[in-house]
């Protein structure tokens, strides 16, 4: 079950970033069909980060262990790889992209974060880990009603109020007490831990997921016509209320599927392989996508004779090449003593 969620989430994340080169078509009337395809792909994969956070909450918040033991485990699994990949990404920025930094600028870049766009997730995860001992006490000593109340307050404060402010052009003030970042997803993972949907409920939840994807994609498309460019993806931000429900339903569906059935056994090895390599793929995939986009590998995967391919083959090829290259790289690194520690 956790392996399936992890495998789906990393596929969604790579697909989400693979569509990046086609965002520019949002503002070209002659390429509207290209934009709508990009919009749908980006919207339908916008549950990737929430799924990872909820999975972490499900796996970590119910445990009872000394604080020192918890942080020792995170040191090897998250902090050391994070430091190593910060260094590697800085080397990429300097020697491949041609950027220059003084020693002080490097320190400021690391502290301000993120060094490379996708690494913001680790900064956020570290903050959640620092709060985990407190959140464990809260979760393990609270009933379901209290946990649900916390999640509802968080969802309203960080997910609904910004949309109300946007639509009605007002400013509703929400104190940053419960409505903080991704903490609601973290607690929601624990809250949903023992909830399993029936086959009928899975079908209903799947219909809800499709409806939310369509609604969210249409909202994004409306902003591409009527909204400012810097807020194009406002309605599919990871903490918008519609994406929250999309992510909650996706999480429940993935954890409720019976993977022991014979027809699922074919996918079991693939799921386990993707789960094992997911953190490493997360760390390396974005640089591969940028390299493919900029021609750093000697070719541009989504262009032919200088012109963009149609987004369906273009995004698909970017996704496949990125996924295969990432999996090969991570699998190779995981076989090398000591080096494997940076791709746990």
Q: SSE layout and pairings?
A:
Layout: H1 2-18, H2 32-44, H3 48-60, H4 67-95, H5 103-112, H6 120-140, H7 144-168, H8 183-191, H9 199-226, H10 241-256, H11 262-294, E1 303-304, E2 307-308, H12 311-333
Antiparallel strand pairs: 1-2
Write up this protein:
This protein is mainly alpha-helical and 344 residues long. Helices cover 69% and strands 1% of the residues. The chain is built from twelve helices and two strands; from the N terminus they run H-H-H-H-H-H-H-H-H-H-H-E-E-H. Helix 1 (2-18) runs antiparallel to helix 2 and helix 7 (144-168) packs antiparallel against helix 8.
| Rg from Cα | 21 Å
What would you call the structural class? mainly alpha
Distance between the termini: 19 Å
- Total strand count, please? 2
Average of the residue pLDDT scores: 89
Q: Please give the domain count.
A: 1
Summed up, the helix count is 12
The helix-strand sequence is HHHHHHHHHHHEEH
Low-pLDDT stretches are none
Shape, per Cα inertia axes:
globular
- Main β-sheet: number of strands, strand sense, barrel status? 2 strands, antiparallel
- Helical amount among residues, as a percent range? 55-70%
Strand content: under 5%
The strand order across the widest sheet is 1-2
